[in-house]
Amino acid sequence: MRSLRFRAWLPSLLAAAVSFCLAAPAPVRAAEGHSVDVDPRIGTGGDGHTFPGATVPFGMIQLSPDTAMPDFKHAYKWAAGYQYGDGSLLGFSHTHFSGSGHSDLGDVLVMPIAGDVRLEQGDPAKPGSGYRSRFSHDSEVVQAGYYAVTLSDYNVRAELTAGRRIGWHRYTFPAGKPAHLLLDLRPSIYDYEGKVLWASLRVREDGTVTGCRTTRGWAPGRELCFAMRFSQPMASRTLYNRETDILYKGFKGPGYQPEDHDAQGGRALEGVFDFGMLKQPLGVKVAISSVSEANAIANLDAEGQGWDFDARRAEARGQWDKALAAIDVEGSKDQRVGFYTSLYHALLSPTLSMDVNGQFRGPDGAVHEAVDKNGKFEFHSTWSLWDVYRAQQPLMALLMPERSSHFIRSLIASRETSPFGILPVWAYQGLETWCMIGYHAVPVIADAYVKGVRGFDADAALKAMVASATYAPYGDLGDYMKLGYVPIDKEPEAASKTLEYAYDDWSLAQMAKAMGRKDIAATFDKRAGNWRNAYDPKTGFMRARKTDGSFREPFNPDAAGYGSDYTEGNAWQYSWYVPQDVAALIKAMGGDDKFVSKLDSVFEAKVDKSHFANVEDITGLIGWYAHGNEPSHHLAYLYDYAGAPWQTQKRLKQIMDSQYANRPDGLAGNDDLGQMSAWYIFSALGFYPVTPASDEYAIGRPFVGRATLHLPGGKTFTVTADPLDDAHPYVGSVTLNGKPLERVFLRHGEIVAGGELHFTMQAEPNRAWGQAANARPASMSVSTTKVSASSDKKSGKTPL
Fold first, then answer.
1. Which parts of 307-452 fold into alpha helices (H)?
2. Where is this region: Disordered (predicted)?
3. Considering the domain boundaries, does residue 333 fall inside one?
4. Is residue 796 part of a domain?
């Protein structure tokens, strides 16, 4: 998700891709945790937009090197602050997005310096012109929870690790040169002049450095505070107000005070902390808070005890080993690296966004406490919902339902503290950006509930879902509710919005049914059919209508970009977005054979990439299919619904072989906070949630020889495949717990109950398997999706 976009009623902006290839199976080393097979460098080149630095699962801190913080017009490539092809570093900052298509954060930038201190960043092409330093990838160590590099211009060895709310640094300085740490509160990822509205910086009596800054970036008015301590006493310190320097331009008259030793306030602050000649490494620990300096100090006191960097590094690795142990995969080193790096990336967001005292900042800008009718919970933010509802959050509901419950409680809390009374659209650190389209927090909640996730207030959740689906000012929902579609003469990208709203409506109906709310279910089941209002049988494509009911002319299915009928796509890519009723879409397109033929034409088209010159996120092209962007993610699985699962198997092989590689530029596009990675994980296991809020997964084909899911309650579900190699790319037959499986879908309950899914692979397609109508995944118009056995049935009405 990505490119700049503006709503008619509120400004918005944007946010896209990851994962990796597999080879022949070999036994995994049981003595090592899976973190040994994580390579955070994957995605740091090209358009992957991942960061290589230190963090823990869903951690508040993402402590990572920054190679650039360019102005907002050129920030796309550096959305995570780091590009593998760069040769110098600005320093290390404490907050980053993983794989987003939009940039911000890069808070609390620090740089260790040996010798003379320069206060400007400098020109990468002119070494020594500023405080930035050259580095070599040969000196980097990049692991889950740990990053190290040598800063060549200072001969300083920098090491980073992280806790949930603390960033830990260790800097080893060369002998004979004075050691300094520079703190720059001016730059941010997605930087531009005037972004910092105000900042404060001070050194407290005990030597703790604290400060805050307020920025007008992607989320306007965002405040971020910090507290920093050092393992060695400062010899001296100077705090600079660089804006004052610029204003006075060398005039030293009354009122001139560019620097201060103890405190500064302004919009362009820096601090330099001097430590003299050090005989041992300098330790630095930093806590952050979106609430206050006092809360940052409390976070540091609670979670930043002592100075044992190696112990903290071991703890971070232990957290990753524990999280990654949710799935055991056997295979070659390449297979394991691809799989576990994908799982690693899928477990980075949403991030913890509350302090140790339970306080968080809500979308209203006020401070709140993370407590609801079920008690205290952990508030998380960083929600790329247009992306993660598809596979990343369904993966959490499957592997980590307890954590999924905290995520949903966070979404409800955001709605309850929102001045608009709706669920988040694209939020981070509690604040809303209004990026992208749809109300996709709705399927996140519905999918979890239908699959048995509990521990949250279902009545409050349903109320929030209905509020989001009926808030007329958002994305022209008012006209959508009146007309049954979004009119293009009132709202841009109207075809995409109509389709996505209709799916969200269907997911809401599924939760209402599971709760026994037939009245709500009936309303939104009806709205779920609104996709038909976008379908043009004359052209065979989804199109945007005008208020008078006519389709907008002229029409070109190849057209994409701003001003088109579609969001980050064209008609070839969006005309398949009816996940709730694929059977009806097949019928509308003329039946199985015509549907399959048209789907083939998507993958086999000869495409001029210039169509997407102004849409930077449409990447990873196979014909019109764009794996680097989410609207295409379910397309390969649609053959299952038309009785041609062998075609799904064929297309998945194409995608896996061409879109993932274990190298820095090995991702087809933005990871979008784990969505691209989650697609890979599900597809490698052999099944995928085409329709979140259904209890079904469409079966593809596996790309690992053996994988064991360790599920809550001590259950295990094992996927095996034999023979698994390039000579046997097709599924010959499938068994579930030793019995033949003639259908091309799995039910969620079958997975969480434990058991074994076995694929027998073969060289040629099995064109008979999965053809029967009752062998295909469910569609709204031909069968009713069954909720899992754990779903609650309620009588009576919940006030909405």
1. 309-324, 333-346, 385-388, 392-399, 401-416, 441-450
2. 774-800
3. no
4. no
Please indicate, yes or no, if residue 19 is contained in any of the structural domains: no
Mean pLDDT, residues 597-614: 91
Find the CATH number of the domain harbouring 736. 3.30.2080.10
Q: Greater confidence, 43 or 614?
A: 43
65 falls in which pLDDT band (50, 70, 90)? Answer: very high
- Structural domain for 421, as ranges: 369-775
Rounded Cα–Cα distance for residues 552 and 544 (Å): 6
For 501-525, the pLDDT digits (tens) are 999 999 999 999 999 999 999 999 9
Look at the block and give the residue holding tokens 């820096």.
270
In a domain, 7, yes or no: no
296: Cα within 13 Å, side-chain hemisphere: 25
- Claim: this prediction has a pTM higher than 0.90: yes
Do 144 and 40 meet the contact criterion of CB atoms below 8 Å apart?
yes
Q: Does the CA dihedral 404-410-415-416 come out positive or negative?
A: positive
Half-sphere exposure of 774 (CA within 13 A, CB side): 2
pLDDT tens per residue across span 132-176:
999 999 999 999 999 999 999 999 999 999 999 999 999 999 999
Q: What is the crossing angle of helices 645-659 and 592-604, to 10°?
A: 10
CATH number of residue 144's parent domain: 2.70.98.10
* Alpha-carbon distances of 644 from 22, 587, 651, 679, rounded to whole Å: 24, 15, 11, 21
- For Cα atoms 3, 10, 268, give the angle at the middle one, nearest 5 degrees: 70
Q: Crossing angle for the helix pair 392-399 and 401-416, nearest 10 degrees?
A: 130
Query: For residues 434 and 123, what is the distance between their CA atoms, to the nearest angstrom?
Result: 35
What is the domain count for the chain?
2
CA dihedral sign of residues 109, 110, 116, 122? negative
DSSP secondary-structure letter at 484?
Answer: S
Cis-peptide into 554, omega within 30 deg: yes
Which of 289, 323, 357 lies at the terminal end of a domain, its last residue?
323
List the structure tokens of 227.
């507290």
| Contacts of residue 144, Cβ cutoff 8 Å, sequence gap at least 6 | 35, 38, 40, 316, 317, 320, 324, 344
**How far apart (Å, rounded) are the C-alpha atoms in residues 492 and 7?**
8
Do 310 and 381 reside in the same domain of the chain? Answer: no
Give the separation between CA 575 and CA 428, rounded to whole angstroms.
Answer: 31
**How many Å apart are CA 104 and CA 224, to the nearest integer?**
12
Question: Are residue 316 and residue 375 in the same domain, yes or no?
Answer: no
Q: What whole-number distance in Å separates Cα of residue 498 and Cα of residue 428?
A: 26
Q: How many residues does the chain have?
A: 800
Backbone angles phi, psi at 482, to 5 degrees: -80, -45
242 and 380 inside one domain:
no
Phi and psi based region of residue 475 (left: phi greater than 0; alpha: psi -120 to 50; beta: remaining): left
